[in-house]
Amino acid sequence: NAGVTQTPKFQVLKTGQSMTLQCAQDMNHEYMSWYRQDPGMGLRLIHYSVGAGITDQGEVPNGYNVSRSTTEDFPLRLLSAAPSQTSVYFCASSYWQGDTEAFFGQGTRLTVV
Amino acid sequence: SQQGEEDPQALSIQEGENATMNCSYKTSINNLQWYRQNSGRGLVHLILIRSNEREKHSGRLRVTLDTSKKSSSLLITASRAADTASYFCATGANDMRFGAGTRLTVKP
Question: Given the DSSP bridges, would you call strands B61-66 and B71-76 parallel, antiparallel or unpaired?
C-alpha cells in the first residue's frame, strides 16, 4: 500500500516556467488537498477537492491550478513560476476531510530561480 | 489566515520529561487534530478529538479540548529523543487549516 505519492521530490525552475506537481493516492480517498510550507511556518492550503470533478480554492490559490479527473490523482500546476513560489509542497488525502485522519505525501521541494 | 495557533513556538526538554503544547483556534469546530512532522518529512496524524470530547489518550499522548476557551493541549509524557519534531494542530472540514507549529527538541 503506497499511500500518497508525490513526484518529483525535488525541482528547480526558472522564473516564468510552468510545471506540474504530481500527487496520487491508492486508498480510494474522496478528499485531496495541496499545501505549501515555507521555512519555519505551518502549512497553508492552496487548493482542495472533495471528489472527482470538484475542486475549490484554499487560502493561497493564486498562481496555481488544479483539476481532479480521477479519484486517485490530483495534480498541481504552476502556471508561471515565481521566486515567491519557492517552498515545500505537500499533498494530502483522507476519506472525509476534517473528520478522519489525513495522509500526507513526503513533499516536493521546489526552488524557483 | 491560519486557524490554529500553537504555543510555544519552540520547546526544549530533557529525555524523560513531559512536553506540553497548546493550540488556540478562532471559530467553532467539529473536531481538532494533532499532527507530527519530522524534519523534512510529511505530516503524520497523531490524534483526533471531537468537539463533544474533553480528553483523549493514545499511548504517551494526552489531548484535551476546551471548546469554551477555543483551545487544546497536547501532552507527551516520558519524552524520548525520537519525539523531536514539529507538532501542529489542525481544524476545519473541507478547508483544514494548520497552525505554525511547536518545534519540540528532546535532548538525550
Answer: antiparallel
- Tell if the CB–CB gap between A92 and B43 is shorter than 8 Å: yes
Q: Any chain A CB within 8 A of the CB of B21?
A: no
- Residue A93 with chain B: CB contacts under 8 Å: none
Please give the share of chain A, as a percent, with pLDDT higher than 90. Answer: 88
Give the residue among B43, B48, B38 at the shortest CA–CA distance from A89: B43
* Contacts A48 to B, Cβ<8 Å: 94-95
H or E stretch covering B50:
strand B43-50
Query: B14 in the Ramachandran plot: left (φ > 0), alpha (ψ -120 to 50) or beta?
Result: beta
Exposed / middle / buried, residue A107 (Cβ in 10 Å: 0-12, 13-18, 19+): buried
Q: Does A33 touch chain B (CB under 8 A)?
A: yes
Low-confidence stretches of chain B (pLDDT beneath 70): 1-3
Q: pLDDT digit string (tens) for A80-101?
A: 999 999 999 999 999 876 578 8
